[in-house]
Specification:
Elements (H helix, E strand, L loop, with lengths): L1 H14 L21 H9 L6 E7 L2 E8 L12 H9 L2 E4 L6 H8 L12 H13 L4 H4 L4 H13 L10 H11 L4 E3 L3 H8 L4 H17 L1 H15 L2 H11 L5 H5 L4 H12 L5 E6 L9 H7 L3 E4 L5 E2 L9 E2 L1
Parallel strand pairs: 2-5, 3-4, 3-5
Antiparallel strand pairs: 1-2, 1-6, 7-8
Length: 327
């Protein structure tokens, strides 16, 4: 019965993904759309585990740690057996932030204060406007956002040209699952912390980061880097992701600045939630998991036993949890 509930609520999670704006012309990036019942059934037939999952244990109690990705393919949305089992076992779903909370989106996209982000030079504005036209998003929707949020939004929209959508991010599915299963959602960071991460760095550093992302959009390299990272996530390839963090996403220090410094506070918050006594399923962007400064290492330092769960290659699940096959 517990597995039946889990599969049913995962179906619900896929139906609460908000539909994207309608594309204005054929040259626009494709839209994610909302899956049909037939597509959901097919997703259950082909469900498999992706990403990386760890079992946590301390003081005789267990929990789960899962590395997520902030974009996804529709065919990747349905978790596999190991992740479903961990979700079913968990009593609280913990994420960096609740992606279905309108207040969160309003908070991270609100106009930047003068001391928070630099003003964009006119030539950079013109280039960003050109990318907005190319991705079929109204500049009026973007122009008041902080500069790094504008660049990040355009980057996510561009990823749709390779079949990757923010609407199918791991966090979207997990938040929908939590609501459908009536499991509480806890967050590791406040909106203010997330906003500070996006707008981290001195003004010159932020402008350099915007320039780097924009240059990648103009040259078509950003999508290639996104595919590299997403495929490494799908394989659970932490060594490959370490290279992404250091060599690709970290070419100008942006990823290191936005990711690594947040890990100690996240580890402390996980320990605090764990002490409440409810079994948590903690879902955090997978770049937070890599290296000696990653969350698995930091939680071990806090006395947790942290064991990575190997995925066994099973494919497919049904409402009773009995449908599976091996590759």
């Amino acid at each position: 019965m517990r597995r039946r509930l889990s599969a049913a609520t995962l179906i619900l999670a896929l139906t609460v993904v908000p539909p994207p704006a309608t594309a204005a012309e054929p040259a626009c990036p494709p839209s994610a759309g909302v899956p049909t019942p037939a597509q959901i059934r097919q997703g259950m037939l082909t469900a498999r585990d992706r990403g990386a999952l760890w079992r946590l244990e301390k003081d005789g109690r267990r929990g789960w740690l899962y590395g997520t990705i902030h974009v996804g393919k529709p065919e990747w949305a349905m978790p596999g057996h190991a992740v479903v089992a961990a979700l079913t076992d968990a009593e609280t779903i913990v994420m960096e932030a609740d992606p279905l909370d309108p207040a969160f989106h309003a908070g991270v996209t609100a106009p930047a204060a003068p001391d928070e982000a630099p003003a964009l030079p006119a030539p950079l504005v013109a280039r960003l406007q050109k990318q907005a036209v190319r991705t079929c998003v109204a500049w009026e929707r973007l122009r008041t956002m902080p500069p790094m949020m504008i660049a990040a939004t355009l980057t996510l929209l561009d990823g749709a040209r390779e079949g990757f959508f923010a609407e199918y991010a791991s966090e979207m599915v997990l938040a929908g699952y939590a609501k459908g299963a009536n499991k509480p959602i806890a967050t590791l960071e406040t909106t203010a912390i997330q906003r500070a991460a996006i707008n981290s760095g001195m003004p010159a550093e932020q402008l350099a980061s915007v320039e780097m992302l924009l240059g990648g959009l103009e040259q078509g390299t950003t999508r290639k880097e996104l595919v590299t990272m997403a495929e490494a996530w799908a394989r659970g390839d932490l060594d490959g992701l370490r290279s992404v963090l250091v060599d690709v996403a970290g070419a100008d220090g942006t990823a290191q600045r936005m990711v690594v410094p947040r890990n100690p506070a996240m580890a402390a918050r996980i320990a605090e939630l764990y002490a409440d006594g409810r079994r948590p399923f903690v879902a955090v962007g997978i770049l937070h998991m890599v290296g000696d400064a990653g969350l698995p290492a930091l939680l071990r330092e806090r006395g947790f036993t942290v064991e990575r769960i190997p995925f066994d290659g099973r494919i497919g699940l049904d409402a009773a949890g009995g449908l599976e096959r091996k590759e």
